[in-house]
Design brief:
four-stranded mixed β-sheet; D-Maltodextrin-Binding Protein, domain 2; 38% helix; single chain; 2 domains; alpha/beta; 469 residues
């Protein structure tokens, strides 16, 4: 869930417009077929100042790796809960099937991967990458590592590793470089715009999940009157607050208006953006007082403990509930997600590429091949809380962890022809890393008391800098 010694910097911009209609089908995991990738006119080739790299510590292999095994270092930011468990289960299966190889999770903690991404970027751009690493599909992948003036820092993946026909065409589009070649293995599909609630708190107060922001405020007032925190927020990393902002923007702008924000700098001047900031400011009045000190999963724990009624978070929260054996939760799309053109599904995905300078490319290729299969994805995703990216997956053997009710509902929404899929800004699909950072800076100032008008001005300036021809 996000934020360097470089030989080759200066990423070309390839703006991902991820507005699609999810196509229904006969398979349980048929997914949307088209996601448009529109290059920005006059992509910037200006020199980029190389920042001082974050300290790079070499992680130690897991104790489970035999001393004589070929170790495959996979760097991620999955350190706890269902996400760490799912990746380890996948590695356990791979290692058992490949004696002499040992894949391990060289995990680095940090909200939405902010610290891990800095370290990974430093290693890859500095010529000392891990064997593979976690990266979000879309801008985060393509702008940082693939569509570079000096050439890609990742190897393209042949069909023997990943069969594009087993993945939605739109997904294939945003894991492919300008050369049309695939550069990473997508492991999952997450939904970002999801609301989670404690069913006991709701039922004991005769409440139902709010479907609009007006409903949310009515519900929040009822909870406040009972001394219950309405919305748990853990934004010791600003990205969690950014996700709430995205939820409000989606409600106010709809799918078309939201997607336009990432391609048209004038879109941020829309009065509806000011309206979204007004709503966001009001939402902020209902969160826990210690939100700045908590991580997203610590905020989620407030919901589990019944100290807060709701939280807005991607569906990795589902994996957190699974890992903590908590079953008393409900879910619904974030308020305002139901639009006239269909219910909005804000999508993101984690993926794993092959660095061109990976220490052991043969062993890593074997691992990535397994990760791309339905078998590998059906081991991983039931723990992670997500649904598989491979459209042939979705049917774990009876002796494995099964998809739970939330994941089944997510699969149904993902494959529903009336579902409208849009990208996530906070998780690498909608905006370039620099654009996202500028938006987060504006939101940090907004949390600190900057006015709505000044915040909108900052957002307009960020868009102009990121999207100028």
């Amino acid at each position: 869930m996000d934020h360097p010694v470089s030989k080759r910097l200066g990423p070309a911009v390839a703006v991902v417009a991820l507005l699609v209609l999810a196509c229904g089908g006969n398979g349980a995991t048929t997914a949307p077929a088209s996601i448009a990738v529109t290059p920005t006119q006059g992509a910037s080739t200006a020199p980029v100042t190389t920042p001082t790299p974050a300290p790079v510590a070499t992680p130690s292999p897991e104790a489970a790796c035999p001393a004589d095994a070929t170790q495959i270092e996979v760097q991620s930011w999955w350190t706890t809960g269902g996400e760490a468990t799912g990746l380890q289960k996948l590695f356990d299966a791979f290692n058992a099937a490949n004696p002499g190889l040992c894949a391990y999770n060289a995990a680095i903690a940090g909200g939405a991967g902010s610290r891990a991404q800095a370290i990974i970027k430093a290693r890859v751009l500095g010529g000392a990458p891990p064997d593979s690493f976690q990266v979000h599909m879309g801008h985060e992948l393509l702008d940082t590592y693939v569509n570079l003036p000096g050439g890609s820092l990742l190897d393209p993946l042949p069909t023997s590793v990943i069969d594009p026909s087993q993945f939605p065409a739109g997904v294939v589009k945003i894991i492919s470089g300008t050369d049309g070649k695939v550069y990473t293995v997508p492991m999952n599909i997450h939904r970002a715009n999801e609301m989670w609630f404690n069913k006991t708190v709701f039922s004991s107060n005769s409440l139902t999940a709010p479907t609009t922001w007006d409903d949310f405020f009515t519900t929040a007032d009822a909870l406040k009157a009972k001394g219950i925190t309405a919305l748990a927020l853990g934004d010791n990393g600003i990205w969690a607050f950014g996700m709430v902002f995205e939820d409000v923007l989606i409600a106010k702008l709809g799918a078309d208006g939201f997607s336009k924000l990432w391609t048209d700098p004038t879109a941020w001047s829309d009065p509806k953006v000011a309206d979204a900031l007004t709503t966001l400011q009001k939402v902020y009045g209902y969160v826990n007082a210690d939100h700045n000190a908590l991580s997203w999963d610590q905020a989620n724990q407030l919901v589990i403990d019944g100290k807060a009624a709701m939280t807005l978070m991607g569906d990795w929260a589902n994996g957190d509930y699974v890992a903590k054996n908590f079953t008393g939760y409900g879910w619904a799309p974030a308020p305002g997600s139901a639009q006239p053109q269909g219910t909005i599904y804000q999508a993101l995905a984690d993926s794993f590429p092959l660095p061109s300078l990976a220490p052991d490319k043969d062993a890593t290729t074997k691992l990535l091949t397994f990760m791309a299969t339905a078998q590998g994805q059906d081991i991983f995703n039931p723990y992670k809380g997500s649904i598989p990216a491979n459209v042939t997956a979705g049917h774990p053997p009876a002796n494995q962890q099964q998809y739970n009710d939330y994941q089944k509902s997510a699969l149904a929404d993902w494959t529903n022809s009336a579902t409208v899929v849009i990208p996530s800004m906070e998780h690498g699909a909608a905006a370039s890393p620099a654009f996202k950072s500028a938006i987060e800076a504006a939101l940090t100032a907004f949390e600190g008391g900057t006015s709505i008008a000044d915040t909108q001005t900052a957002l307009v300036s960020a868009a102009q800098a990121a999207l100028a021809p």
